[in-house]
Write a structure and sequence with these properties.
Elements: E1 4-7, E2 10-13, E3 16-17, H1 18-25, E4 29-33, H2 34-47, E5 53-58, H3 65-74, E6 77-80, H4 83-91, E7 99-101, H5 108-117, E8 121-124, H6 127-139, E9 144-151, E10 173-174, H7 178-187, E11 191-197, H8 208-226, E12 233-235, H9 252-263, E13 269-272, H10 276-279, E14 283-294, E15 299-303, H11 312-316, E16 322-324, E17 334-340, E18 349-357, E19 364-367, E20 388-393, E21 396-401, H12 406-409
Parallel strand pairs: 4-20, 5-6, 5-13, 6-7, 7-8, 8-9, 9-10, 9-11, 11-12, 12-13, 15-17
Antiparallel strand pairs: 1-2, 2-3, 4-14, 14-15, 14-19, 16-19, 17-18, 20-21
Helix pairs in contact: 2-3, 2-9, 5-6, 8-9
The structure holds ligand LLP.
């Protein structure tokens, strides 16, 4: 469900015509619906209301400060993977006691920052990291609350690049060896074991992989408890998929129905780390048609957004629906086109061989489902300023990130003395 709908023949975000924003700030830009964001967060919160829970929104999916503030006000915590994400979460007013920190490569300065703040827990991914945490906490006279990220070796049946819970992935500790690591953690003086974490992948469209992983982890928690360890949190990560095209992923409610019974005897607070399911369909990328081009082989629609603005099609062959802002009529002519951007790479495309309504130069297009891993993965490649981000609430809209300028492109760059003048 989302709030991007045609009304009176044109696309609206809630009560705001997309065209109005485009006329005001130019294209390309990301446009987000506050109502959709709140609705998606609440869907998780209500679905899991039967168990004690902390819903830690995965910042990596979209870390804009206004989005964080909105979700923080709804009661969200944060799943972070860097010092930068910790900074953003804190700036947005997210309660440190609702922040979990994952990632295989936490640096010492990042560890110290999180220890100083006193986050809920570090989701630890290796023995070396455990020792590094113990060292840092010891020097700071602090205690590092930790969960170990266990790898349950479950196939999430998603794109290989976004599977994380398989044996061959770099993430977590194989569940068969995890007991040893917990014992090691228990022997460290500045580490307190508080939980168990797992995350098996992203854009998962079935309930079963979540259930399979959880069954393994719940059994493991029993083992830990009988070894005398006080496990208070079970963090099941994120990964719930969304509809990009014709997928029918489970709703949070369906996920909850499937997994809540498994948690009954575990006596733990549930931690969830959804990203995409909250923000993915709450955002679109708006772009303008620049040119048509026909070679013997193909028809290209050249638009003003490229792979630097939305890399998912290039990187994962991901499908994003592309809709004209003016609602097409059923009898309108169609074309089969590659929708491509201005970047100097053949891999710069938003869609390939796409059958879509014929559009003219200057027409506006909405690249749907762009809220997650859109702006957050964007770059300045080809020295393209990153695009603006806009949030709608009802009939009003607000620019929540200005379009970058050419001066922003060279921010921090310096000419050495010997080249000056
Ligand atoms: N927790 C952990 C530990 C994660 O690694 C991730 C995502 C999440 C939570 C959030 O997962 P979500 O609910 O958003 O599926 N760039 C890729 C997705 C990479 C996901 C990485 N980890 C894409 O555009 O599809």
């Amino acid at each position: 469900m989302h709030d991007f709908q045609y009304k009176n023949g044109e696309l609206y975000c809630e009560g705001v015509p997309v065209k109005t924003v485009a006329q005001r700030i130019g294209t390309p830009f990301y446009l987000y619906s506050s109502n959709t964001l709140s609705m998606h967060f609440r869907a998780f919160d209500t679905a899991f209301s039967g168990v004690p829970r902390v819903i830690c929104y995965a910042l990596k999916s979209n870390s804009n400060s206004a989005i964080l503030r909105l979700l923080g006000r709804e009661g969200a915590g944060a799943d972070i993977v860097s010092g930068g994400e910790l900074f953003r979460a804190l700036r947005a007013g997210i309660d440190p006691k609702k922040i979990v920190y994952a990632g295989v490569g936490k640096r010492r300065d990042e560890i110290e920052y999180a220890l100083k703040i006193g986050i809920l827990m570090f989701n630890v991914e290796s023995g070396d990291e455990l020792r590094a945490l113990d060292d840092a906490a010891g020097e700071m006279r602090a205690t590092a609350r930790i969960a170990l990220r266990v790898n349950p070796n479950i196939d999430p049946k998603t794109h290989a690049y976004i599977s994380t819970g398989l044996k061959e992935n770099k993430f977590g500790i194989p569940i068969e060896q995890a007991l040893e690591y917990y014992q090691m953690a228990r022997s460290l003086s500045h580490v307190e074991i508080v939980g168990v974490h797992h995350h098996i992948g992203s854009q998962i469209t079935e309930v079963q992989p979540f259930v399979d992983a959880l069954e393994k982890v719940v059994a493991f928690i029993k083992e830990l408890k009988s070894a005398g360890m006080n496990i208070k949190y079970i963090d099941i990560g994120g990964g719930l998929g969304i509809t990009y095209k014709d997928e029918t992923p489970p709703l949070p409610r369906e996920l909850a129905t499937a997994i809540q019974p498994l948690l009954k005897d575990c006596g733990c607070t549930l931690v969830l780390e959804p990203g995409r399911a909250i923000v993915g369909n709450a955002g679109i990328l708006v772009t303008s048609v620049l040119y048509h081009k026909e070679t013997g082989e193909k028809k290209f629609l050249i638009v003003d957004a490229g792979m630097n603005d939305l890399i998912r099609p290039s990187l994962y062959d991901a499908y994003h629906e592309i809709k004209p802002i003016v609602e097409p009529a059923a009898q309108d002519p169609h074309d089969v086109v590659d929708v491509v951007g201005p970047i100097c790479e053949s891999g710069d495309f938003l869609a390939k061989e796409r059958d879509m309504p014929a559009v003219k130069r200057g027409d506006l297009l909405a690249v749907m489902s762009g809220g997650a891993y859109g702006f957050s993965m964007s770059s300045n490649y080809n020295s393209r300023p990153r695009v603006a981000e806009v949030m709608v609430r009802g009939n009003e809209y607000f620019v929540i990130r200005e379009r970058e300028t050419y001066n922003d492109l060279i921010k921090g760059e310096k000419i050495p003395r010997w080249l000056a003048g």
